[in-house]
Amino acid sequence: xxxxxxxxxxxxxxxxxxxxxxxxxxxxxxxxxxxxxxxxxxxxxxxxxxxxxxxxxxxxxxxxxxxxxxxxxxxxxxxxxxxxxxxxxxxxxxxxxxxxxxxxxxxxxxxxxxxxxxxxxxxxxxxxxxxxxxxxxxxxxxxxxxxxxxxxxxxxxxxxxxxxxxxx
Length: 168
Known about the structure:
globular; mainly alpha; single chain
């Protein structure tokens, strides 16, 4: 159901995606507990859907305690936690809270660089998201610098023909 909900989101079937993901979240909470990694993953995906539906405050209100729970149960450098931070940063950016979004993305990127290697696709993806955020703020020099670092890292491991490499 989780995968189906996210596929429906990709197909712009937001209401149905939200219904399915809400069901997944509630069932996981009931069966696994509210701080189980899979429950937190469903919470993150539900928040992602709500962001797409422009329920920005609601998504933020879900993610902040979810991220705190993930820090407690998964640790500061767990990919699931960092993905949740990325979704929250996206919500901050949509609300024009660029400082909060940039701070969160910088912290997440630094954590990825330490917990993974610099050339890991997750790190490249974080840099790509950071460059988009910087561009939204009109920080063109920083956007280009971040993009150059992302391209260098793509060339270290992925090659430019990889879908993420092409996107960067």
